[in-house]
Amino acid sequence: MSNPVVERVQTGVRIEKRLLKVLKGLAEYFDISLGDLLEGIVLHAFEGKAPPFRPEHLKAIEELKRVYGLDLDSSASHRMVERNPQDEN
Q1: Are 10 and 49 in contact (CB under 8 A)?
Q2: Per-residue DSSP letters for 49-88?
Q3: What DSSP state is assigned to residue 10?
Q4: Could you read off the pLDDT of 41-66 as tens digits, one per residue?
């Protein structure tokens, strides 16, 4: 099977700060770019056949979540409320 030729675009996606830190750490763990990691996760999710991570990867993810204080899970995905930076002053 040949490698698919794709066209990539730059995007300005906003994402929860700790979640981004965990994703960047995971990309480093796999020695791939953040974009490649996100593409792989999404393609696995779209297929719905196999999870994107093996059990040993999930252990690494749990450690990264602990390191970066990420206490969110999938149940939070549609309930998050963004903090107003002005509230911190």
Answers
A1: no
A2: SS-SS-HHHHHHHHHHHHHHT----GGGTTT--PPPGGGG
A3: -
A4: 999 999 998 899 999 999 999 999 99
